């Protein structure tokens, strides 16, 4: 992405305000932050437009894989802007399974789905592998999977005839895995003809240059790179080299998303962790257990959040540990860190509590209060919306940091308000004292 | 075929080095982002510390069950960590708190001395969090352990002078707490060095929030501190210590009620291992671990990721 000054040089510098900005420099700054489009300036010369379009094209192409966007990244570190398109996880389905076994396998893949306060974390893709070596059977397996699985798919085979049969068996656009040096021409032709993305199985970054240039020469660009990293260190180093070259050097052959095939078990999960942290767009597992999937999916969510927008929890009433009509009522802001911390500390106390979350636009308690987003009125509205006061006659506990609004809140909800702790970690002690009275 | 462009960064700064224990462990010294040997070869990997408590009050049972009963004796527990191959022991003296036993400073000092002697490993000492109780204990401990450089954990911007005085008196190492804030990290190093603590005796704890509990913040704060240090900011060049044990307090990690989440022990182990992997990839020079399985994974991965296996 060009800098504001580079954009500025290409603008008319008349400060005409036709773009809606007070000056050309202000407009240039918006452009460099991707908050305005060059078309917003009616006076910019066509030549300049082309120069800018070229310069501002994302250094990593976005490749559509059955509806999942891969790549499209613009930075090396998430604090610089954000990572755009989260890594996808696929699980293998062997075509040596019969139709019943395939249905079971797909059901298992679907079972890797978790609800984390309003966000669904799940496995994204099924990868059908041609273990049988038989084209007709492979096509049958693809059909079986597609009848049970709505999501995008990968088809894996080393035989062009099998790939061709599988592509024809579905109207989805599967990712074809994949073309090495020997299969390149045949696979690119199938992918081109059927408008499918294709994985290139490369021998490291150097091998990738050769394969990508050959594929591009054939007019094909829907490419995902598998650098064939053999271990954690190669995954980290090779993916870093490729992504740095793409972003810092605008090295065209590396302007593609990257993927890994990792097998199953501890080391496979560790490799997926590395790829999630460092620039991967797809990991194919032979298998993935639920106790591995939840932390891995959570990691993906953490790495791909926008660092400038706090993660928020939905405004709602969250019962913790089966609260009843006498359980204490607590409330806090919808900043996810605040929510998770308070929730964990309530759980530690082993005392059932009604936890009301108030929408403060993702701000923590003190910040929200200072910004006027944690006012008694807003809290009372949230109480009214959830009806929590009619669910329990227990004490209403106010976060200690905003004690000063307890009088007003008391007035609004018509219930006595008890002052809680300043620190979340003191909640268990406070709850134990309160309920023992 | 087009040649690969060079992608090595030219950093001007070097992360400081801190000598621990009997001089046999050194932490820090990085000249590039972690584990990128094409840029900077190093033989050093992050240091892994295993955690023991002097009381099991409030210690999670799920974790306690992984130590075969040896968690009941902190010295035996620490020795078990040594046999697992960790580099350091983190001793948490929670029982200094009158509500959890009210151990005396002398008894605490004796315990730390025993663990140091029995394991021969460097020790991180952390108190109960009540300053008036912790300071006399730290004073007794730092005078009792003279043949090994301890790490005293930890001070913040409001209250650092008392513990810093203890550290200076016996040439021990001190941790400055940066609470997820790059500027505060810098501020802590300025405050401590102005007070007279030598730079080679300071570690930074940026606060490693566990997976699902703010890891995204920690990951980026670590990277920003490390990149600034490598770019030459001398007040952001202290080695980073990341405590990953809080993973065992995350409800999704330790939930034993919901069968769809799978085995809680394995899940919590991964929770901590992934937190630690995120730490070492973003710049941690040292991690503190609670679970033996997670510690073992991190040790193995660190060995692989540095140059020499």
Explained architecture:
- The complex is a heterodimer of chains A (437) and B (309).
- By secondary structure, chain A is an alpha/beta fold.
- Chain A has 3 domains: 4-56, 3-methyladenine DNA Glycosylase II, Chain A, domain 3 (Orthogonal Bundle); 62-303, TIM Barrel; 317-436, Rossmann fold (3-Layer(aba) Sandwich), CATH 3.40.50.
- Chain A contains 17 helices and 17 strands.
- Chain A has helices at 4-10, 24-32, 46-56, 99-111, 135-148, 160-168, 184-194, 204-217, 232-248, 266-277, 290-303, 336-349, 365-370, 376-386, 388-391, 406-413, 427-436, and strands at residues 62-65, 68-71, 88-94, 113-116, 119-122, 125-129, 153-156, 175-179, 198-201, 223-226, 258-263, 280-285, 317-320, 329-333, 353-358, 396-398, 417-419.
- In chain A, the strands form 4 sheets. An 8-stranded parallel beta barrel of chain A has the order 3-6-7-8-9-10-11-12, surrounded by 6 helices. Chain A has a 5-stranded mixed beta sheet with strand order 13-15-14-16-17, sandwiched between helices.
- In chain A, α10 links the parallel β11 (258-263) and β12 (280-285).
- Chain B has one domain: TIM Barrel.
- Chain B contains 10 helices and 10 strands.
- Chain B has helices at 61-64, 74-84, 105-119, 131-144, 161-169, 182-195, 215-230, 251-254, 264-282, 292-305; strands at residues 17-20, 25-28, 47-53, 88-92, 123-126, 151-155, 173-177, 202-205, 241-243, 286-289.
- In chain B, strands 8-7-6-5-4-3-10-9 form an 8-stranded parallel beta sheet. Chain B has a two-stranded antiparallel ribbon with strand order 1-2.
- In chain B, β7 (173-177), α6 (182-195) and β8 form a beta-alpha-beta unit.
- Chain B is globular and about 70 Å long.
- At the A-B interface, α8, α9, α10, α11 and α12 of A face α7, α8, α9 and α10 of B.
């Amino acid at each position: 992405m060009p800098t504001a000054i580079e954009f500025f040089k290409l603008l008319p510098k008349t400060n005409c305000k036709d773009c809606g900005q007070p000056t050309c420099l202000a407009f240039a700054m918006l452009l460099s932050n991707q908050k305005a489009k060059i078309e917003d300036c009616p006076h910019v010369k066509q030549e300049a437009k082309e120069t800018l379009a070229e310069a501002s094209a994302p250094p990593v192409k976005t490749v559509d894989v059955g509806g999942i966007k891969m790549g499209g990244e613009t930075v090396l570190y998430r604090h610089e802007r954000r990572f755009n398109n989260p890594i996808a996880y696929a699980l293998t389905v062997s075509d040596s399974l019969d139709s019943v076994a395939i249905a079971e396998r797909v059901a298992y893949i679907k079972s890797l789905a978790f609800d984390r306060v309003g966000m669904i974390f799940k496995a994204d893709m099924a990868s059908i592998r041609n273990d049988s070596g038989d084209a007709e059977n492979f096509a049958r397996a693809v059909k079986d999977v597609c009848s049970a699985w709505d999501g995008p798919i990968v088809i894996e085979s080393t035989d062009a005839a099998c790939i061709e049969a599988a592509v024809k068996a579905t109207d989805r656009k599967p990712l074809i895995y994949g073309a090495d040096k020997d299969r390149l021409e045949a696979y690119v032709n199938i992918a081109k003809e059927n408008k499918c993305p294709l994985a290139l199985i490369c021998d490291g970054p150097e091998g990738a240059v050769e394969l990508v240039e050959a594929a591009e020469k054939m007019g094909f660009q829907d490419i995902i790179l598998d650098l064939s990293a053999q271990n954690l260190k190669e995954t980290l180093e090779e993916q870093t080299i490729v992504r740095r070259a793409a972003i810092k050097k605008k090295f065209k052959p590396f302007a593609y998303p990257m993927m890994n095939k990792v097998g199953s078990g501890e080391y496979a999960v560790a490799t997926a962790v590395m790829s999630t942290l460092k620039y991967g767009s797809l990991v194919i597992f032979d298998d993935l257990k639920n106790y591995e999937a939840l932390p891995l999916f959570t990691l993906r969510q953490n790495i791909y959040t926008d660092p400038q927008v706090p993660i928020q929890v939905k405004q709602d009433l969250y019962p913790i540990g089966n609260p009843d009509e006498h359980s204490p009522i607590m409330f806090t802001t919808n900043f996810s860190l605040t929510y998770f911390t308070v929730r964990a500390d309530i759980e530690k106390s082993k005392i059932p509590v009604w936890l009301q979350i108030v929408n403060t636009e993702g701000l923590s308690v003190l910040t929200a209060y200072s910004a006027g987003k944690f006012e008694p009125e807003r809290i009372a509205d949230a109480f009214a919306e959830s009806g929590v006061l009619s669910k329990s006659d227990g004490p209403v506990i106010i976060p200690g940091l905003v004690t000063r609004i307890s009088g007003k809140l008391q007035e609004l909800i018509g219930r006595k308000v008890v002052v809680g702790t300043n620190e979340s970690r003191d909640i268990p002690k406070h709850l134990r004292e309160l309920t023992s009275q | 075929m087009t040649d690969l462009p060079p992608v090595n960064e030219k950093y001007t700064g070097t992360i400081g080095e801190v000598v621990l224990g009997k001089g046999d462990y050194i932490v820090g010294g990085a000249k590039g982002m972690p584990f990128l040997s094409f840029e900077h070869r190093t033989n050093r990997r992050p240091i892994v510390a295993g955690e023991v408590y002097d009381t099991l009050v409030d210690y999670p049972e799920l974790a306690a069950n992984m130590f075969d009963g040896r968690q009941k004796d902190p010295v035996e527990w620490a020795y078990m960590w040594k046999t697992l191959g960790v580099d350091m022991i983190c001793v948490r003296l929670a029982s200094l708190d009158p509500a959890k036993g009210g151990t005396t400073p002398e008894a605490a000092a004796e315990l730390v001395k025993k663990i140091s002697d029995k394991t021969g490993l460097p020790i991180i000492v952390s108190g109960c969090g009540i300053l008036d109780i912790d300071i006399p204990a730290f004073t007794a401990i730092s005078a009792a352990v003279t043949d090994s450089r301890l790490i005293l954990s930890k001070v913040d911007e409001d209250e650092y002078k008392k513990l810093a005085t203890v550290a200076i008196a016996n040439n021990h190492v001190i941790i400055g707490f940066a609470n997820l804030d790059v500027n505060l990290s810098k501020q802590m190093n300025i405050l401590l060095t102005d007070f007279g603590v030598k730079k080679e005796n300071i570690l930074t704890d940026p606060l490693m929030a566990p997976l699902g509990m703010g890891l995204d913040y920690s990951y980026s704060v670590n990277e920003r501190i490390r990149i600034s240090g490598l770019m030459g900011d001398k007040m952001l060049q202290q080695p980073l210590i990341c405590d990953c044990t809080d993973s065992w307090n995350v409800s999704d990690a330790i939930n034993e009620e919901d069968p769809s989440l799978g085995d809680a022990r394995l899940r919590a182990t991964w929770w901590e291992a992934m937190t630690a992997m995120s730490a070492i990839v973003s710049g941690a020079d040292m991690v503190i671990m609670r679970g033996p399985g997670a510690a073992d994974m991190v040790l193995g991965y660190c060995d692989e990721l540095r140059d020499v296996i």
